[in-house]
Write a structure and sequence with these properties.
Length: about 160
Amino acid sequence: MIMENLLILGAGQYGVVAKEIAESTHIFSKISFLDDNNPIAVGKLSDYQAFKDEYECAVVAIGNADIRLQLINTLEEAGFRVPSLIHPTSYTAPSSRIAEGCFIEPKTVVNTDVEIGTGCIISVGAILNHNSVVEQGCHIDCGTIVAARKIVESKAKTDIGSVVI
């Protein structure tokens, strides 16, 4: 298996989550951060172009949906591959469709024919029941249940333990 390098834009709470999910997949040989305010970062957010030769993949781990989606677009235009990071303890149905730049955290269920848009965060223990749609930039917080055939509109954020019916 060919291992790739991953650049994470944002070294805060979402960045650490993204790094741990990426590590759990065992497909990245090197994982580094870009961040404007965190000393663990190898550079600033605006430095992404300088890392293109060293990192094939990049993701955006920033809570603000508008910024997250804009940076995903910027990275794709710059030629980075923007994978979705899916924790191995989550269940993702073979018929589910997960767009680029998503984080699927541990113990989540992405059921049959679920569609998840670009740049979504699906937090620990969330359940997306069959045929539901989570549009781009959403954050489905811990323990949220999205009922079958429901739509979560773009950039929405659910509260912990919410039920979308």
